[in-house]
Amino acid sequence: MSDNTDFGEFELLRRLTEAAGVSGREERIRDLILAETKDMWDETHTDAMGNLICLKRAARTPARSRRADKKTAPANPTRVMLACHMDEIGFYVRYIDDDGRLRVQNVGGFDTRNLFARRVLVQGKQDLVGVMNAVGRPVHLATDEEKKKIPTVAELFIDLFLPKPRVSRLVQIGDPVTLIQQTAMIGDALTGKAMDNRIALWVAINAVRKAAHSCRYDVYFVACVQEEVGVRGATTAAYAIEPDVGIAIDTTLCCDTPGIGKDDAVTVFGQGVAIKVMDSLSISHRGLFDEFLGIARRKKIKHQIEVLPRGGTDAGAVQRTRAGTRAITLSVPTRYIHTVTEAIHRKDAKAAVDLLAAWLSA
Ligand SMILES: [Zn+2]
Q1: Which of 32, 51, 101, 227 has a CA that sits 20 to 30 A from residue 2's CA?
Q2: Predicted structure pTM score
Q3: Per-residue pLDDT tens digits for 20-71
Q4: Which of 9, 18, 146, 227 is catalytic?
Q5: 90-179, what's its fold?
Q6: 2-88+193-361 adopts what CATH topology?
Q7: Neighbours of 310 (CB within 10 A)
Q8: How many angstroms separate the alpha carbon of residue 185 from the centre of ligand 1?
């Protein structure tokens, strides 16, 4: 398992995925990004909703002669917004019972079949670890009918193994709860919780770094809040930035797994970054789609074309801001999405960086 200790270029992704940042409480992710990337930006600020907006101005024209050296960036470079949501699905404490057990309200779409017997982090007065299980009898005692039942979120509870008075001192209604999962490198994959959508932060940061000396645009990297509850952060950030082009970076379904027909796979693991045609929130701007596809083909960057029947990204919000914005989504294929085993292929992540960097410099 020595592979698991050295994440190399993915170390930032490991830290981003393991940190807690439920929709509406993204401050730990924001702080981590700022601390790690402060030197990259010309300006940074956090808006009223909590979006972290980082501006990297267009690079000077690459120097070829002394004269070219003096050339400065164009007067009005196109503004490009990179929308990368930093929130993750999770919970808020909604009730503390007489025995000190917590009941929760989910934010974002969980498949409760994946929520049994999970370790969770409760951000109370201090960080507390608990376990989440469903109400009712254990398997030894359950009837056949009971065994078949899938609990709802309302039927889940968290045990902190502390007496009620201590729980009451440490936890209050509204404290955030997230699943705990260590990120791991397994085979060709990076797997853990919140790959959706910390991978996008990693991709955008690395692409902007890669394109730093050749970028033609003023790039607004936005770590958006509250995407999982309806692209809320991107909505206000796009309004403020008024971008000429909006690029959402997000995960997408990769259902190339047993029990699903190949026609329903959406994307294939390891076959490259996905250039989105459409999902249920946006249809990508055709000109942008052609640009990305053209660059991917010319530069031989592994890519696939994505049509997602259901789901959406921040592109839906950016596209419809003000009088409308050219928008597209670049996706990283992700297996087992919205579970703690979300998995992305290393090469797909790198292809996403390569394609975005190439477009920024093209
Ligand atoms: Zn997402």
Answers
A1: 32
A2: 0.93
A3: 999 999 999 999 999 999 999 999 999 999 999 999 999 955 444 344 444 5
A4: 227
A5: Elongation Factor Tu (Ef-tu); domain 3 (2.40.30)
A6: Aminopeptidase (3.40.630)
A7: 9
A8: 21
